[in-house]
Amino acid sequence: MTQYNPFHLAFPIRDIEETRKFYQELLGCEIGRSTDKWIDFNFFGHQLSAHVKPEELQQAKSNEVDGKNVPVRHFGAILEWDAWHELADKLKAHGIDFIIEPYIRFKGEVGEQATMFFLDPSGNALEFKAFQDREQIFAK
Asked: Helical H runs in 34-123?
């Protein structure tokens, strides 16, 4: 499989502490550098920079995909199959309100994947995926 380079994403939040708790304690992301205005996370091998900028937060707009309202602006990670299921169970146990409950998309087809959508404390939409066959991540 092709090796990918980590990406960097900066995004707005309303509060450092609630963001730190969510990403570090719930999602298991290590903290990098931080100030009272921003905090970096190791987001599954990628660098996220959360900046306190509540005026930049937007109401998530959605687009219908497979009969579900998918937030247009979202980010996330592709996990290993078992890790995705463990995270879905952990989120359910913590009472996370899902935008789209964990389910299997394209079952039995090319690109079969597990997916789920939920919001962070600032209302940023997250999607986590997993593929039974990671070679199908970009399959057509």
From this structure: 81-93
Question: 87 — alpha (psi -120 to 50), left (phi > 0) or beta?
Answer: alpha
C-beta of residue 27 within 8 angstroms of C-beta of residue 88: no
* Whole-structure pTM value: 0.89
Beta bridge partners of 11: 50
pLDDT 10s digits, 34-79: 999 999 999 999 999 999 999 988 776 888 887 878 878 899 999 9
Q: By residue range, what is the domain housing residue 29? A: 8-53+64-136
Domain harbouring 117, CATH code = 3.10.180.10
Q: What span, in angstroms and rounded, lies between the C-alpha atoms of 22 and 38?
A: 15
